[in-house]
């Protein structure tokens, strides 16, 4: 019998990255039983939480590499972007580029010694481009697993590789190098880090270097669906100049306790409470509001959003955390919401405020949910669209602006309400956009398109006879990797 080949997965230190990497690890072990040993690598605290959440029979192995947050000027026990304030985020990125000796030791000494040969392949996040050099040194196949969409990543790469953007003024819209001339962006669609980047600042140093290194990887696996983003896939292939396989959506499709799906803290609410609350509402009536694992809107925006939600008189679940600029780990204060808001909306059964963290996948899977006001992080996008739920976009950072644009202009499943933390948002506008998406002809149309998108996604992951594009792409990628393995392993076909 052929010996199992070893695949090592290494996500960036952020919840939105660890969750899909864990899902990919589970997908490979489930789809190819007994064929591969799959190891997920992270820092000790992330591994500890992952260990609590992984069922003993998952087949996924966990390995930790040493990390001391104090060595990087980070608060104690900080190994994940979701527990650091925005101004310290850069430290997580910088710290992640210093893990080279630890990672190399794990691969070259520990795993290679235990297995008697180097791993078949290492699959890493694109913020960890430095791993390319280790893979080259050890003769191991290197691939990127891009946890973002193809279109968003193509714009993001182009924007970072063509600095500066400081010449762009607020009146202009501008062209993105590598894109068709008709494709325009506006200054407000650049995250602050990108807007002020000049190539020499700390963000530019980390991100440009990692992207450049990634471009000498062997392949990109993209957490998307070919039929969902045909233009995005074509642009990403052109801009990256690499083989790109779309294998998504890679997310836990089975509804599990979200608090246990990744390296995650205590849940803000018991999933059962949310689901019971949703049971009491008519189909497609509830708006779910969340800004992902690391973003918050400003205090003024929070007031306006609350007032707008109350004015719609529609049911909502809102994941609340301290506004932008406040300690992310602090208790949520009543003064951040209009006086009596939680009492009024809670007592009338119209609003459920969830502190900190919700069971998002369970919520989006419930038939009572009719819309998602989201920061358009790619996992949230996939989770919403795979359940046919249209979105209201409020992108906050990174490629979220381009995800929102693509969903509104290409797919017709999103209406953008606001951008970032600086925009003045009125409660009247909140009320108008929520009404537009939850009711009326436009909302109905969006729902139809979202349902057809959900079908495209379901078809792509079909694993039986008539294999979907994503299932076939993962087979094809692994077959390609196996062809590169040393001669002794040539019999190891999929
Ligand atoms: N998530 C969740 N509950 C929350 C917030 C986030 O389960 O209260 C999960 C969500 O389902 C998704 C991930 O965290 O899988 C967030 O990833 P995304 O790419 O949407 O945004 P990011 O947090 O990376 O900005």
UniProtKB/TrEMBL annotation:
EC number, as in UniProt: 2.4.1.-
Stretches of the chain forming a coiled coil according to its record: none
A GO molecular-function annotation: UDP-glucosyltransferase activity
PROSITE patterns (alphabetical): UDPGT
Domain of life: Eukaryota
Originating organism: Spirodela intermedia
One of the Pfam families matching this protein, by short name: UDPGT
Database matches in InterPro entries: UDP_glucos_trans (IPR002213), UDP_glycos_trans_CS (IPR035595)
Matching Gene3D superfamilies: Glycogen Phosphorylase B
SUPFAM superfamilies associated with the record: UDP-Glycosyltransferase/glycogen phosphorylase (SSF53756)
Keywords: Glycosyltransferase, Transferase
UniProt key word Glycosyltransferase: yes
Protein name: Glycosyltransferase
Similarity comment: Belongs to the UDP-glycosyltransferase family.
């Amino acid at each position: 019998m052929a010996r199992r080949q070893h695949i090592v997965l290494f996500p960036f230190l952020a919840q939105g990255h660890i969750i899909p990497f864990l899902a990919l690890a589970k997908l490979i072990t489930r789809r190819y039983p007994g064929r591969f040993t799959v190891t997920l690598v992270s820092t000790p605290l992330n591994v500890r939480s992952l260990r609590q959440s992984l069922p003993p029979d998952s087949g996924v192995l966990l390995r930790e590499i040493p990390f001391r947050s104090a060595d990087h000027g980070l608060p104690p026990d900080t190994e994940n972007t979701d527990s650091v304030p925005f101004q310290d985020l850069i430290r997580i990125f910088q710290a992640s580029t210093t893990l080279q000796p630890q990672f190399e030791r794990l691969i070259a000494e520990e795993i290679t010694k235990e297995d008697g040969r180097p791993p078949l392949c290492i699959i890493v996040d694109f913020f960890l481009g430095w791993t390319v050099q280790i893979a080259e040194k050890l003769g191991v196949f290197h691939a990127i697993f891009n946890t973002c969409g193809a279109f968003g990543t193509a714009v993001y790469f182009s924007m970072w590789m063509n600095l500066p953007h400081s010449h762009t003024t607020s009146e202009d819209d501008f062209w993105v190098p590598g894109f068709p001339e008709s494709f325009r962006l506006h200054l407000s669609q650049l995250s602050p880090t990108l807007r002020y980047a000049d190539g020499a600042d700390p963000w530019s140093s980390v991100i440009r270097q990692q992207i450049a290194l990634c471009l000498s990887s062997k392949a990109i696996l993209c957490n998307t669906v070919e039929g969902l983003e045909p233009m995005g896939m074509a642009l990403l292939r052109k801009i990256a100049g690499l083989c790109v396989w779309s294998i998504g959506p890679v997310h836990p499709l089975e509804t599990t306790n979200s608090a246990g799906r990744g390296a995650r803290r205590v849940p803000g609410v018991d999933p059962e409470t949310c689901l019971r609350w949703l049971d009491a509402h008519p189909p497609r009536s509830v708006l779910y509001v969340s800004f992902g694992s690391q973003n918050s809107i400003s205090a003024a925006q929070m007031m306006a959003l609350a007032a707008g939600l109350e004015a719609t008189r529609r049911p909502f679940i809102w994941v609340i955390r301290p506004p932008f600029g406040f300690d992310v780990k602090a208790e949520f204060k009543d003064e951040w919401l209009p006086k009596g808001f939680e009492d009024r909306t809670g007592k009338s059964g119209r609003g459920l405020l969830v502190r900190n963290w919700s069971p998002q996948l369970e919520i989006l899977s419930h038939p009572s949910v009719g819309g998602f006001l989201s920061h358009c992080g790619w996992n949230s996008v996939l989770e919403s669209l795979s359940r046919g739920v249209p979105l209201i976009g409020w992108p906050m950072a990174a490629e979220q602006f381009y995800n929102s644009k693509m969903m509104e202009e290409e797919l017709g499943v999103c209406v953008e309400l606001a951008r970032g933390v600086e925009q003045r948002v009125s409660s009247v506008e909140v009320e108008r956009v929520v009404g537009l998406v939850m009711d009326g002809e436009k909302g109905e149309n969006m729902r139809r398109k979202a349902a057809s998108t959900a079908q495209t996604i379901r078809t792509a992951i079909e694993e039986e006879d008539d294999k979907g594009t994503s299932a076939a792409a993962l087979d094809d990628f692994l077959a390609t990797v196996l062809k590169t393995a040393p001669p002794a392993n040539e019999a190891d076909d999929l």
